[in-house]
Design goal:
Blueprint lengths: L1 H23 L12
Length: 36
């Protein structure tokens, strides 16, 4: 069914956004910096 496919797509989008958020907030301790 197309319904379940849309659900999986939304889950993936939410995960990607959540992962990117931590790398975006430079003031957070979880910030993924390229610097040593």
């Amino acid at each position: 069914t197309s319904g379940s496919r849309d659900t999986d797509k939304e889950k993936y989008k939410d995960f990607t956004f959540d992962h990117s958020y931590w790398s975006y907030d430079a003031d957070d301790h979880n910030y993924a910096s390229q610097e040593e």
